[in-house]
């Protein structure tokens, strides 16, 4: 149920309406499924309910009764839930006013919660989740073995404490993020579903949400495993070294009191070295990543550029775990209606009797007389005038009558304002036409099974509906045969221009003018329909209706028979004119799609629309461009589809092999062919063809097919996919893709709820991907690389030191100081890099969409960069360690003649490493905000200031006895200061030089863009763009002569009889 | 009602809109080339200064490990490879040493009889070619001795050393010292047990042809440990010394068995014993120096001197060597040119890179922010390429786009 809340709704309220329910309810105390009181208000509960427009609210009116579902639904529910006893028979009997009897039925309780945790489950659930990460398990393991006596080279709690801190920080973040639902206020409650709880649709959908991990995360995990391998190798090598040295020099080393090393010593030594080197894998990386992603998500939520004023909605990152994935999208799968378009059809123009009318007349196109001919466009006021006194007024009358009568729309009167009619149309085009007619004064008011009423001026005219020849995709038209108030029989027909023109009589004076107008409309991207009629003599009708009735009662091939029958009467038509409807695109959609394509993202549109409509929209939203050649796949069988696709692939490939350029391609495939194309033996060929095309449009696809297409691509390509949609039918696709984006618009919230990100306009996708995604990917890449770098740099020094201490596992640093490195001193730079860094500004990313390809190609974070950084870290650690080993050779004679000893060297080495990694952080910081200053030089200053306090207090309380009295001697040594100046600069000289060399001699696009941004160099492209636009327009006209869409988006056959069964004069069940 | 202020409008702050004021440095020639030269200009003189000052430090050292086998009464020359004298003077004779067995007499503290033990005494005769300005330091240097071994470094009991009369149970609880034999040892632990116990005598001046007369030169054994170290140690807290055992390696120089302390032969006072304190501040490397004595007042005059070294410390059984190191002190302490050379190397590298890149820059400067180098949408089109197609085709498509 849409908007149904969890904890907020007070379920005890629900008992109140029940107590005052209808008499027959209370007297029966239970309601059988066959007994629906026709006047009682009810709603079929469950999944069906949410599909209807009926709202649901907590403010229950008093007359609400609750019913068990109708049997069909009950069966459905039973299939769905299986187990519980009450459901076995598919019937739920709910006893009103009798909690005791209800209790006996053992229904599910009513409570649902959409939040992830509650007070009791938090701890176990959270811990389970955290320890399912390799890194955390590893650190837990480390913390445990540190408790074993004599194994750990460092203090006991030096892993446990940071791990606890890290988990604590993650826990806080989790609590702050924890996905509960809100109850929305609505005016009416039509029914309530009770005793379903977790069986309600909200929960069913929610529970299906798959766990998504980003490719950066997966990649990180793989590298962690590799690093762990290296760690093991280092530990093993050290343990072997220990064994060799101990056993070969057992006599010489007797002052250490060593026993002959046994295999169990060897095992323990491996553990010792594992602990010693464990932070090769950065303990704080996971939590830093989570915190950074959380902030990045907040920044997405608070972006004013993605805030939609009209609905007061900002973008919403529903999960922060996928933000960087937004920077690596290669394919977008988009729904059309409601996503690219507003799903609002507007009756914009029409051509009646060769005269063009429009709601808004463009400057310079006003109607005038040239060479005795009326040319140009009239406005709708003129239409009104012409209806009264113009030679063509009769045609206008028939035209408008046709629009008001020939359709499958249901008029619905507002309860509080009966003069207001709302048209419920299964096809928004039809709705727009009927509304258009109403606007011109031909108001459709009533539908009865055998007739419709329209108000023309003050006259209420009744048209008897004799027959309806339905629309389908082969007919491309629909006709209605009516008997008018004057008892004459008329056939009204509307349809695609091609099919109408074929069926016109010989005397049709308006054809040329209408065709001209149709072309104009198509150029403007409007959806057009031709409108024609014929008066049918009574005897012809009587003859025909027999044929029709026979066809209607045929058992086999009824559809074809009906089509044939319709064909007999739909001829010799008189063309009245044409309509032009605008399927309004959302603001900025063409620009957004164009930009996304420039960014190297392929956009596939998956729509339930008909092929022509889809192509038309494809053109108007710039998905398909004038220079593309279209491959239209419209096959009827498996083999035809296969052959078609194979041929196309072969042709394209051979063209490429000849070295010829071919036009960019667009593939249009309809639902039926797609069904075949998705079968096992064809899917690869289909995919091969599809990836060769710049744009792909799948029309008439079912929700399932949408998901299948996404899954097909996901399975076979390494690309990262994004699906965007607004309706419930997009949910499966959204969940199948790596990243799901929901349009939080008018079409309910199912899509937005199951999505990872919700935005209110398609165009916001541009900023979401090109700016937030690109930033996030680049930031995360830097963060991860730097985190590994800093830890590898520090911890490999431990390994070098092992060569100097007989592989004894002695730590070169004091153990709490090491912990400090991970939880304090090098925590801020990754955070600021992750939250604030911008390698180029948002404006530049928007101006140069091709920068997005850096993310698609994983330029910033891949196996190569990872190991490049790792090797660099080792290089730095080698320089620092061995330089210190030489500087502190023989333990360093200090200025006063005393000897420094182990710990002076240790602190100097540590400070040098810290300074080196902070210099490196400075080098990779592209944007120096105040936070960057705080975190990079700030961390160094903090350490220099904190160390004296730490050393003095630590030694006093027995935490760090090694540091007793160490501050004065260290800070008093010139060698200390000179070392921490020289080594970091010497190390980073390579990095600095490489960075310069890359920019100067091997520049990439982003280098130039950074310079353009920095120097504020103006862009010379606007002039070029204007030229391009002019060319575009010319080509536009050319191609539209080839392809023209027409407006019919309703479902195929089978609805007309349902619509006709409708009687709007019968009173509706009261709400 | 109609015009409620928007509730969900995000705040327009520079933080939330990611428009924080910031500096955006770019590594272009203009900013990078000067930094290369600046680093060169700053580091070269600094390195030079360090090397110059460091070379003023005079270091004099030799290896005396093999003195044990130097039975030739005329003296044996120290091994040439281990003899270091850093002052730029002409050739002069290497130190010679000779070994002789002696008895050391240890007087009793509380009126008992003295204790004698035999020791090999190494008498070293050496020439000091130049005067050494005070302060002059005397160090011993050990090699291949793992004071930084994990099992060794932590083998001590801080409380016992601070003067607490720790019981066997206390020590066992604190896990610092091994208590295998069950004896309560003071000072316990591997570090104390392996205390360096060679002794160096005052330097006696020896008449020679170049310097017929001279003065003896004495090194004090105070001021060799860190002044702060005194705070760590206290006089032993035990009263019944007969229950306190002597560390195993020390016993040769004590009467026994039983090897317990007594009023006559009490434990050392670690609070004042700087040799002990120096030893307890463990080394970071297996080769290390430890101060033995210092002279802050007197000039160590050039001349010939003789020094007796009692060879108690069995370094050869540990697989290491021992040296005597006599040195003056410089601006950064002892003689070590690495830092100065490091600065000079960094300066040369940096300035060298600066020169190379400046040459490149002058020969072929790169245009900054060159629009023509950015391909507009070209790469997007290249996606229509067939996967098995070579790059030439891709470029063709791209160039077509750029013509647009």
From TrEMBL, chain A:
Record field: catalytic activity: ATP + H2O + phospholipidSide 1 = ADP + phosphate + phospholipidSide 2; a 1,2-diacyl-sn-glycero-3-phospho-L-serine(out) + ATP + H2O = a 1,2-diacyl-sn-glycero-3-phospho-L-serine(in) + ADP + phosphate + H(+); a 1,2-diacyl-sn-glycero-3-phosphoethanolamine(out) + ATP + H2O = a 1,2-diacyl-sn-glycero-3-phosphoethanolamine(in) + ADP + phosphate + H(+)
Residues that bind ATP: 335-337, 430, 471, 494, 527, 607-609, 700, 706, 729-730
GO biological process per UniProt: endocytic recycling; phospholipid translocation; post-Golgi vesicle-mediated transport
Topology term for the membrane: Multi-pass membrane protein
Positions that bind Mg(2+): 335, 337, 726, 730
Transmembrane segments: 222-246, 266-287, 783-803, 823-845, 866-888, 900-919, 931-950, 970-989
GO cellular component terms, A-Z: plasma membrane; trans-Golgi network
Domain P-type ATPase C-terminal as annotated: residue spans: 752-1003
Record carries keyword Transmembrane: yes
Chain residue ranges for the region called Disordered: 1-48
Basic and acidic residues bias spans: 1-10
Cofactor (UniProt): Mg(2+)
Entry annotated with the keyword Transmembrane helix: yes
Alphabetized UniProt keyword annotations: ATP-binding, Golgi apparatus, Magnesium, Membrane, Metal-binding, Nucleotide-binding, Translocase, Transmembrane, Transmembrane helix
Residue ranges of domain P-type ATPase N-terminal in the record: 94-159
Compartment(s) where it occurs, according to its Swiss-Prot or TrEMBL record: Endomembrane system; Golgi apparatus; Membrane
Location of the active site: 335
EC number(s) reported in the record: 7.6.2.1
GO molecular function: ATP binding; ATP hydrolysis activity; ATPase-coupled intramembrane lipid transporter activity; magnesium ion binding
Protein family according to the UniProt entry: Belongs to the cation transport ATPase (P-type) (TC 3.A.3) family. Type IV subfamily.
Name listed for the protein in its UniProt record: Phospholipid-transporting ATPase
UniProtKB/TrEMBL annotation, chain B:
Transmembrane segments: 31-52, 338-363
Keyword Calcium among record annotations: no
Compartments in which it is found: Membrane
Biased composition (Basic and acidic residues): 387-404
Region described as Disordered: 378-404
Family recorded in the similarity comment: Belongs to the CDC50/LEM3 family.
Name of the molecule in the record: Cell cycle control protein
UniProt organism field: Podila minutissima
